[in-house]
Amino acid sequence: QVQLVESGGGLVQAGGSLRLSCTVSGRTHSRYAMGWFRQAPGKERTFVASMSWDGRRKDYADSVKGRFAISRDNANNTLYLQMDNLKPEDTAVYYCKVDHYPYGLFHPSGRGTWGQGTQVTVST
User: Fold this and answer.
1) Quick one: DSSP state of residue 85?
2) Residue 117 CA: distances (Å) to CA of 31, 40, 60
3) Per-residue confidence at 30, pLDDT binned at 50, 70, 90?
4) Which distant-in-sequence residues (6+ apart) come within 8 Å of 111 by Cβ?
5) Is the pLDDT of residue 37 over 80?
6) Contact between 99 and 34 (Cβ < 8 Å)
């Protein structure tokens, strides 16, 4: 059974940085596209960033382009999200997701497995 565990969230001042991690167990995650989403209080879950299975394609929401960077460490079965120049509007619970089917591009609306989320709070 595939399991995802996020970590690295916390409280940071505006302009600061955090690095989120998502460790995958039960599957060799290097064969699968993965992505990050976030959900602010009272709002729907939205796409943040994604990476194709081979790492060649990365996509970002317009709101985080130039500030966030997605990466992966296949040896440790871990996906990362480096978040720089954080803003109060980045405050949310951040979730990672791994696609159900191997290879190819990430499918934000497709079948997959989610982590439990990690809270990021950015203060003014």
Assistant:
1) S
2) 22, 12, 19
3) confident
4) 99, 100, 101
5) yes
6) yes
Give one DSSP letter per residue of 25-41, joined into a string.
Answer: ESS-GGGS-EEEEEE-T
- Residue 66 token pair: 């130039």
Its sign, for the CA torsion 75, 22, 60, 107, is: positive
Q: How confident is the model at residue 46 (pLDDT cuts 50, 70, 90)?
A: very high
Residues 6+ apart with CB under 8 A from 20: 6, 7, 8, 9, 36, 80, 81, 83, 94, 96, 118, 120
Q: Give me the long-range contacts of 22-26 (CB less than 8 A, separation at least 24).
A: 22/78, 22/79, 22/80, 22/81, 22/96, 22/115, 23/76, 23/77, 23/78, 24/77, 24/78, 24/79, 24/98, 25/77, 26/1, 26/2
